[in-house]
Design a protein that fits this description.
It is a single chain. The chain has 12 helices and 14 strands. It is of the alpha/beta class. It has 2 domains: 227 residues, 3-Layer(aba) Sandwich (Rossmann fold); 109 residues, Rossmann fold, CATH 3.40.50. The strands form 3 sheets. The chain has a 7-stranded mixed β-sheet, sandwiched between helices. Strands 9-11-10-13-14 form a 5-stranded mixed β-sheet, sandwiched between helices. Strand 4, helix 4 and strand 5 form a beta-alpha-beta unit. The longest helix is centred in the middle third of the chain and has 21 residues.
Length: 351
Amino acid sequence: MSERQLLRGNEAIAEAAIRAGCTCYFAYPITPQAELLEHMAANMQRLGRTFVQAESEVAAISMVYGAAATGARVMTSSSSPGISLKQEGISYLAGANLPAVIVNVVRGGPGLGNIAPCQCDYFQATKGGGHGDYHMIVLAPSTVPEAAELTMLAFDLADEYRTPVMILADGMLGQMMEPVALPNPVDVADLPDKPWATTGAKGREPNIVLSFDLDPLVLREMNLALQEKYRHIVASEIRHEETQTDDAGIVIAAYGTIARIAKSVVREARAEGIKLGLYRPITLWPFPYEPLRALAERAQTVLTVEMSAGQMWEDVRLAVAERAETPFFGELGGVVPTPRAILNEVRNHAR
């Protein structure tokens, strides 16, 4: 690890991507993730790597597809409406079994919305925003150091499973500054070989990378293989964090920035004698259903707190399945719930 540096979340993600061996980055500017693109512009070409500011989001994700097919470690980044434009390409990546890292620094919506932090892209990320039966691995950091750590992980998971991986942050995490001890750079030469890549067919049979087949029976087999891969990911890659849940009668379920705020609420509630805990999914897909289900066997209430109309709340209710009460508290349009507002909601449900 390097000495700690004071970095914005966007800068930490960008620098971690470089240290993870990202050799190609394609994107189009949009706030509130502009610093990520700026950091890549300032450093990728200096290192002899590929940086392209594309003419559009659609062009950028198409470039990602092409570079990924050649075996490059590739990344793109954007914010909410920009990710919407990339959804067709993301579906192509998933269908073609191509590894790529996609960063979404979420802003308020729907539509063009605003540039304030929000969590309104949960459905888009976890339920497959494009067409077809596909998933991405979705990682949700709650601090700037964790954003760097999960970026390194994202590249490894993308290569291991040949799948797109999304880092789902938000405008607050992208803009806030924290001390970060960045991981040591990987040696690109030491990365695993990709024998499936389209690197030229001299001396071997050509590789074919595609996401379609006109024969329904063949396409069915491609889909079945994808579903088998997803079952393996669900079995192996679930990540979550619990804070003071052992004796909790009420548990907040939250991710990302809201989970960070909720940790302070846990401390304040405990000081008042309320046995409050925090359940934080780190992988939003695959969602950690089983640990939350087990927690609901002990707690009476699982309160979901989000900067949305209740998108993760649906997964929380699926996990809890009436083992506990499942109220919801959220804000919309880029409004960030305060610790006081969350604590007041906790008091309403405490027993």
